[in-house]
Amino acid sequence: MAKANVFNMAGQQVGEIELSEAVFGIEPNQAVVHEVVKNHLANCRQGTQSALTRAEVSGGGKKPWRQKGTGHARQGSTRAPQWTHGGIVFAPKPRDYSYTLNKKVKRLALKSALSAKAASGDILVVDELKLDAIKTKDMRNFLNAVEAGKSVVITPEVNEIVVKSARNIPGVVTTTAKILSVYDIVNAKRLVIDKAALAIIEEVFA
């Protein structure tokens, strides 16, 4: 049975909690995790790159010299790709890189990522993730106290105080229990999970 340490907001360990085998105790499937991370990065691409082909570059309508007798290679246009100011061969054009994956694949990848973090002991549970005011210093002190470093902070629902307190800390990402990202989990060193959020994760993804 996978377990995680429970901390309070002072950074002190106050106990241990057992994690659901169905979510945090499966054998990680690396191929599926790779597929989902690749999908996430593809969906993030803007695809707005654009260059001009020889058909779109202005000029070049006149043959630069006659076909034969000059000693030069034959040329039909000064906008062919080998010329300065010529068009681009196979010029990139705006396109959509996004594609979809099956829900079961995404769910398996999420469980695999969570299980890998549980196996390596990189899941920290907080009895109640709560700050009195929006203060980056308080959030940083808490994360330093639990040695979180580059981490994903998971709350039950959107907590504006936590989000705004953590947004200026490099490497720290905040999210909610129902919209976990496999990419964020894989990219982070540790997961800092509110106890209430942990219950939601185990209920939704089990």
Helices and strands in order:
Blueprint: E1 3-7, E2 13-18, H1 21-24, H2 30-44, H3 103-119, E3 123-126, H4 136-145, E4 151-155, H5 160-166, E5 172-176, H6 182-187, E6 190-194, H7 195-205
Parallel strand pairs: 1-3, 3-6, 4-5, 4-6
Antiparallel strand pairs: 1-2
Helix pairs in contact: 2-3, 4-5
Task: Walk me through the structure.
The chain is an alpha/beta fold and 206 residues long. It contains 7 helices and 6 strands. It starts with a strand and ends with a helix. The model has no long low-confidence stretch (mean pLDDT 92).
SSE string, helices as H and strands as E: EEHHHEHEHEHEH
Secondary structure: helix percent: 25-40%
Radius of gyration from CA coordinates: 27 Å
Beta strand count: 6
Determine the number of helices (DSSP H or I, runs of at least 4 residues). Answer: 7
Helix-and-strand structural type: alpha/beta
Question: How would you state the average pLDDT, rounded?
Answer: 92
Contiguous low-pLDDT stretches (5 residues minimum) are none
What does the largest sheet look like? 6 strands, mixed
Q: End-to-end span in angstroms?
A: 15 Å
Going across the major beta sheet, what is the strand order? 2-1-3-6-4-5
Strand content: 5-15%
Question: Which descriptors would you attach to this protein?
Answer:
single chain, 206 residues, alpha/beta, 6-stranded mixed beta sheet, 7 helices, 6 strands
